[in-house]
Structures
1.
Amino acid sequence: FVTSHSSHTSEFICAICTQLVEYQKPLHTPCGHVFCFGCLDEWLTKQKRCPNCNHAIDISSCTEMKIGCALGWRVLGRVQVRCPLLAQNCVWEGDYSEVDNHLISSQTHVNSHVTPTTEANALKEQGNAKFEQGMFQEAIKLYTKAISLAPSNATFYCNRSAAFFMLESYRLSIDDATKAISLNRLFAKAYVRLSKALCEEGRFQEAVDVMHKALEIEGLEGVPVAQQELERVETLVGLISNAQASSVSDSHEDAHRLFTAAMQLCPPYTNAWLLLELAREQVLVGQCDQALRITRDLIRKDGMNPSPYVVRANALFLSGDFDQAIKHGKEVLRLDPDHADGSRMLRYLRNSIASIQEAEKNMGNREFEQAVVGLTQVIEDTKPPVHSPLAAQLFSKRAECHLRLHNYNESLSDTAKALYAQEDCLSAWITRAGALIALERFDEARTDMEKLMEVTHHNPQVVQMHERADFEQRKRKRPDYYQMLGIPRVASEREIKVAYKQKALELHPDRHPDKAGDELKQMEIAFKQLGEALEILTDDMSRDLYDKGYDAEAIRERVKAAQMAANKQGGHHRGW
C-alpha cells in the first residue's frame, strides 16, 4: 500500500518481515539499521546479531527510532501510503504517520460500499498485526472500532481482552472475555482468556470454576485448549494451597519453592498477588534483595496498595536499612490508617532498632558484656532468618564483643553463624581471624586472609590482619633470648655481655667433645642463637624491635632499611 518511490523507502524495510517497519515503535540498532520492534525482539531471542550486517547487538542496545534517529523517523512518517483497507474501496492516501488515526477515526469509511462486517473484519486484521508487533494500545483502538461496526462479534471482544491482558489491565480483560462468552457460549478461547485474567487478579478458584463450567457445555468449540487451561489452574490452586500450608507451619523454604513453581504457571510472570506472596516468603528465608526488587516493581505499578510496603519494610529491616524500613512502615499507615499489620509492624521495627542501637552504643563505650546481653536479646526477639543480612550483622557484632572479652570460642561460633548468613560479611571474617590468632591457630587465620585478599582486591583491613597473623606466628616461633641468657628483660648491656660469656662457655661445641650426631647439631644451633641474642640485645634499635615482637629476620630487614634511608638522607645533605 506504499505509493512513495522505492528509493524513499528502501532504508525503512524490515529485513525480517520484508515489510515497511511499523511507524509507532520501530527500533534503530547501533549499527544503523531499522526493524519492527516485534520482529527484532523475537529475532534476538534466538541470536544476538543484526539480521542485516551480523553485528553483535542485543535488545537493550537498540533505541526507538524517534530517539536514536529522529530525522529518519520524521522521514518515515512522510512516506506516502494508501489506506490498508483499499480492498474495501477506501481511497484515502496520505502520510504513513497518519494511517492509525485514519483507521480508528469515526469519520472514515462511513460511506463505504462494503458491509460493516467486512470492514470490521479488516480492522480486526489490522489490530492483529499491531498485536503481533507488541503495539497493544493501537490494537485496542482498532478492535474497539471493529466492535462499533459489529458489536455482536465475540471474536472482537476476545481479541481486545487479550490486548488488555498484555497491558495488565486485567479487569477490562475480564469484562471483554465475559462479554465474548455472553455472545458465544461455545467460544472456548473466551473462557481461557477469562480464566487467565482471573488468575492475574488472584481469583484462582473462580478461574477453576469458569473452566469446569465451560467443559460442561455440550458442543464447546476448542475442548483441548479448555482442558489444558483447567489442568493449569487446578495445578496452580494446588501449589498455592500447599505453599500457604507450609508457610503457616513455618516451613518457609518449602513455601518459597512452591510459590516459585506457581509463578512458572502464570506467564508473563506479572501476577501481583503471587509476586507479593513470593516476596513475603523470600523475606522469611532471608532473600531480601529479591524481595526488594519485587516490591519495588509492585509499588511502581500500584503505589496506593499498602501491602507491598509492609513486605518491603520488613525486607529493608532485615537488610539493615533501618531508616528506610521506618519510612515504609509509616507509608503503610499513611495509605491505610486502619491497616491490620501497620501499627504493630511499625512498633516492632522501632523497638528492635532501638535495642540494636543501644547495643552498638554499649560497644562504643567498651561495655562489651552489656552489649552481648543486648544483642542476644535482639536475636531472640527478632529471630532473623539465618540467611538474612541482619543475622550476619547481629552475630558479627556479638562475635566482636566476645573477642574483646577474650571469649574466643564463643566468638568463633558467632562468626560461623554470621558467615553462614552472609558469606561475604567482611567484619565477621576480620573478627574470626582475630579469634584464631588469639587461640594461636595462625595457619587458619593466614589461609582465611589470603583467600579474602584475592576476593577483596587486598582490602587494607584484610592485609593488616594477614600481616598480624604472620607476625604473631613468627613471634611465637622465635627463641626467647632473655630466657636463653638467664637474664631479666630490663638487663643492662653489661649484664647481657656477662651472661653471654657464661652461656658461651657452657654451650661452646669444643667444650663437649663427647657429643656427636644430632646432639652436637642441636648444641651448635643453640650456640649460634646465643650469638644472635648478643647481637640483637646489645643494639638499641634491634633490641627495641625484638621487645616489640619481631624475630631476627624481620629485625635485620628493618635495621637494613633504616641504614639505607639514613645513607640516602646523608647523600642528599652532601649534595647541598
Note: The chain is about 70% helix and 0% strand.
2.
Amino acid sequence: AVSGGAFAEALSPRLAEALLWALERLAPTYLLRPTDEVLGCQVVSLWAADTAAGGVLLARCVESAALRLLCWAGESPLALQAARLLRTLARQPYCAAGLQQQPAWSRVLGAHAPGSRALAHVPPKAQRALVEALACAGGAMPGAVAAAGYLHELCAVLSGRFDEVRAAMTGTRGAAMLPAVQTLVVSLSQSARGLSRAVGRLAWSADVPSEARIDLQRTLLGFSAHLAAELAVGLLPAYASTPPVVTALLRVLADCARAHALEGALSAAPLGALCSTCHTSASLYMRNYGPATQGTRQTLEEEARCAQLLALLRAHEHLAVALFDAMTAAAEAGVLPPAGGEDACAAATLLEGFGGSVLPFLSADALALPKLCACFFDALSAVLALARAPGAPPLSEELARAARHSLRHGARHRAEVSRVALEAVYALGAHAAQQEHAPEPVCALVAALQHELLLDLAGSQIHPDSADVAGNALLALVVARPDAWAALVEGIAAGAAEPEALRQLFAQLTSANGVRGSLDRPNRARFRANLALFLAAVRQRPHLAAILRTAEQGAAGA
C-alpha cells in the first residue's frame, strides 16, 4: 500500500489519505531516526534512517506522496496530506539528505519547475506545504554552492509565477476578479508563506558551513520580504472587495515578519523595508475598509475581517520583537543605534503604523472575539517593549493615550488576556523606573495607569488569577513615578471622612513589611502581601471604597 504499485493505485482517496496521515506521524517520529537515537529498541532500529531498510522506507514514503500529489487531481485533502508528508520528511536533516536521491522527489521537482502545469490542480494550502518542503530540503544539498543554486532556482520559480499573475491581471479589464486569476493569487500567496516558514527549518547538511547558512538565510529572507511587498502592496488595492484574497495577502506579510523574528536570522535581515511594507499595507487596508465601529462583531465574522486583523497584528508583533532584539543586541555589544539609523527609522515606521492604521480597527466589539483580543494584547505588549529599546523613538501622545485605554480594557478581561496586559504595564513601569528623565508621554501614561489600576484593584475589577501580576504592575508604576503616586494618595485622602486613616493605609502599603523602592523578587512579594492587606481593609470599610469609587468617577469625567 505504501509503494506505487497496482494496489496503491486501487486505494480509495480516503484510505490513501489515512495512509499518508499515518506515515507523516510514524516515519519521522519512530522509524526514520538516526541509529544512535533508537538504540535499545531492535524493531525500531531496523528502520533507522541510515540503514538499508530505512532507505527503502523513505523511498516508499516519497513514492506514495508523489503519486497522490501528481496523479490524483481533484482530491484536495489527499494532495494536502501528501504535501504535508513531504514537508515532514524534508524538515528532518537525516531524511532530507536522502530525498535528493529519490526518483519520486525528482519528479516533484520537475513538476514545480518553471513553465510546468503539473501542479496546477494542487490546492493552495498544499502549495504552501510543498514549497516549504522544497525549501527545507535545499539546505541538505551537498555543499554550499549546490544549496545556493537550488534555493535560487526555487526563488526564481516563485518570481516567475508572480510575473504570470501580473500578466493575467493586466490582460483585460476586470481580469483580476476572474476566479482563475484569484486562484492564482491565493496559490502564490500560500507558496510565499511556505518559503517564509522554511527559513527557520532548513535541513542543513554538514557540508554547508555556518557562514554560508547565514548567507542563504539572508537570501531567502530578502526574497520573502520582496515577494511580500509585491503581493501585499501591489495587489491589495485590486482585491479590496474580495475578503478571501485580502486575507491570503495579509497572511503572507505576517509569515514573512515571523521569519524575520526567528532566532539566528536577525543579523541577516534588514528590517526597514519590511516595516515600510507593513505600514503601507495597513494604511491601504484602513483606506479600503475604514475603522471598525460599534456593532461590527457580526461583520468581522462574516467578512473574514477578524482573520485579516489577526494577520496585521501578528505582522506588527513579530516585527516589533525582531527590532527590539536587534537593537538590544547592538546595545549590549556596545554599538548604540544612532537616532537616525536604519533600525531607529524602522521602529518609528512600525510605531506610526500600529498607532495610526491598526489601533483604529480595534473597537470593544472587535476585542470581544477571544482570539483577536489575545493577539491584540500580544502585539501591544511587543510594541510597548519596542518603544523601550535602546535608540528607539519614544511613544507619541496618541499612541500612549490609546495604550492606556487598551491596557485598562485588557486588565479587566479574562485571566489570560489580563495577565498579558498587566505584564505589559509592569514592563512599562520597570523601564520608566530605570530612566532618569522619561519622555513626557510615558510619564503621563504611568501616572494615569497608577490611578486606574488602583481603582480597578479596589473595585475587584481584576481577575483573581491575575492578582500577583497586578501587584507587580502597581509596584512598578509606584517606583517609576513616586511623585505622581504621592499626589494621587493626597488627592484621594483629601476627600475622605477619615483622611488620616486612609493616609496610614497607603503608607503601610508602600513601607510596611520592609517594602522599598525596588523591583527585585523579594520586594515584589512583600508588596503583594501588603497589597492584599490594603485591599482587604478598603473593601471592608464601605466609606473608603466609596472614596475610591468617587475618585474613579471624577477621573472618568475628566
Note: Residues 192 and 252 are 6 Å apart (CA to CA).
3.
Amino acid sequence: MEKSMACLVGAIVILWCCISHVTSDASDHRYMKGDSVPFYANKVGPFHNPSETYRYFDLPFCSPAAANVEEKREDLGEVLNGDRLVAAPYKLDFQIDIEPESYCKKRLTIKEVAQFRHAVLKDYFYQMYYDDLPIWGFLGKFDSEDKDDQSGAIVHLFKHVHFEILYNKDRIIDVFIRNDPQAVVDLTENKEVEVDFTYSAKWVETDTPFEKRLEKYSQTSSLSHNLEIHWFSVINSCVTVLLLTGFLAIILMRVLKNDFVKFTPDEEAIDDQEESGWKYIHGDVFRYPRFKSLFAAALGTGTQLFTLTIFIFMLALVGVFYPYNRGALFTALVIIYALTSGIAGYYAASFYYMIEGKNWVKILVLTGSLFSGPLFFTFCFLNTVALAYNATAALPLGTIVVIFLIWTLVTSPLLVLGGIAGKNSQSGFQAPCRTNKYPREIPQVPWYRTTLAQMAMAGFLPFSAIYIELYYIFASVWGHQIYTIYSILFIVFIILLIVTAFVTVALTYFQLATEDHEWWWRSFLCGGSTGLFIYGYCLYYYYARSDMSGFMQTTFFFGYMACICYGFFLMLGTVGFRAALIFVRHIYLSIKCE
C-alpha cells in the first residue's frame, strides 16, 4: 500500500511538471513597445473535418523564408493534438500599427490555383497563435446556386488580412482577424493568377485584465441557455437515479425480506408464496468464472481506466485544461496511463490469485495488452491513413519512439511491479458459502432473461442519464465548440457510476432468483454495455448531427471512438461487477449456508 501511495504522489508531481511545460515562448507575456511577439501559423483543413488538418504551408502561401520554414519545437501533447507550428508570414510587433502593406507578391500556377480553389470549396480554415491566443480565419468564399453541385461555383480567395489587437499596458489581451470581402482574387478559372498578399494591424487599448483574457472561450459553455440545458441534463440524470434507486430499494427489500423469512427455520413464518431460488444455489454462486485470467485482466484494466478518469477529472476541476492549453489533455492522458499501469497489474494479479489462478505471467501479459493492444492496432491503421493524406494527424517517427520508450521503460516495469505486489498481497477469496464439487444445472430461462437482453436493459438506463451531455462532449472533441463545465460533467459521471451499479445489482439478483449462478461475467457485461450504447450514439451523431465526411475523417471518428467506447466498456464493467460482488456477498452472509 505504501508503494502504491508513493507511485500516486510521484505521478502527480511528474504530471504537474509536464503540464506546466505547455506554455508560451514568452513565459511572462510582457512586452515593451516594438518588441517582437511570438506569432505562429498552425494548420489548415476542412472546417467540418477536425481530424483532417494539414501544415499551413502545404497550401501555396508565401513562406516567410523561401528556402527554410522556421518550425516551433513542440511537446508530446501538441504533436498528438496534430499541432505543427511554424513562424507566421506576418510581423506584428507590440503596439505598432501597420497600414495595409504587401508581404508577398506571387504568381499562382494553374496547379496552385486548383489547390486554393479546392480548399475554398471545402471550407478550409486556418489556425494561428499570437502570444498563445488562438486565431482562426477562412481562406476565401464561394457562391454556388446548388449546394450539392459546386462545379459552377464562383470562387474567391481573400488576399488581405486585418488584425485588431487589444492590449492592457504591457500585455496582450485579445486578437481578432478580419478579411476584406472586397479584397479578393478570382480563382474560378484554371489559369495563372497574380496575387498581392497584404495585411494591416490596429492596436486598441482595453481595461480587461490579463488574468481574464481567456474567459471568453470558457464563457461559451456558461451562457444562460447552455447552462439551462446542462442543468436539465443533471436534473434528468438525478431523477433517473432517484426513481431507479427507490424502485430497486423497494423491490429488493420486499423480495429479500420474504426470501429471508422463508429461509428461517421457523415454519410459522413460511407463507404460501412461491419460493425464491437464489438461496438454493449458495453452493454454486461463488464458483469461479470461466476464463479466469481474461476476467481478472479485464478487472485490472478497468480499474486502471477508472483511476485514469478520476485523475483527469481532478486536473480539469483545478483548471489545468483551460481552453487552448495546447496538448495538455493528451500529455496528461499519456503520462497518467503509463503511471497507473501498476494499479492494473496489482488488481489483476491480486484478484487472479484470489480465485486460485496460477500463471501470473499470463495474467500480466493479458492485462498489459487488453486495452493497449486494440488501441495500438487502431493507431497503426489510422496513422497509415494520415500518412497517405499527408495530414498533421500522422505522428512523426520521433514521437512514436518516445511513446514506445514510455511504454517500455515506465508502463511495463510498473505493470510487473504491481503484479508482483498483487500476487503477494492476497490469500484467498473467502466466500461466505462453501462451493459444491459439481456445478448445479442451470434451468431454461425466457428470452428476456438472456445475457443479450439483460445487456440491452442494463446499458439503456445509464445511457439515458448521460445522453444529453454526450452531444456537447462530441461537439467539443469532434467539432469546434469549447467545453469547460467540468463540474457538471463530473456530476454526470458520478450519476453514471451510481446508475450502472444499481442496474447491475438488480439484474444480478433477478439472475440468481432463476437459479442461474453464472453471474460473474454477466454482471461485467451488463455493467459495460453502456459503452455499446455510446458507440451506437456515434452513428447517430456522425450522420445526423455533424457534417463530417471523407474517408480519413470517417475512419478517425469511428476508429478512435471504438477505442474510447471499449475503454468505457471495461471501466463500467468493472464498476458493475464490483457492485454485484458486494451485493452477492452481503445477501449470502445474511443466511446460514449449509
Note: The mean pLDDT is 85.
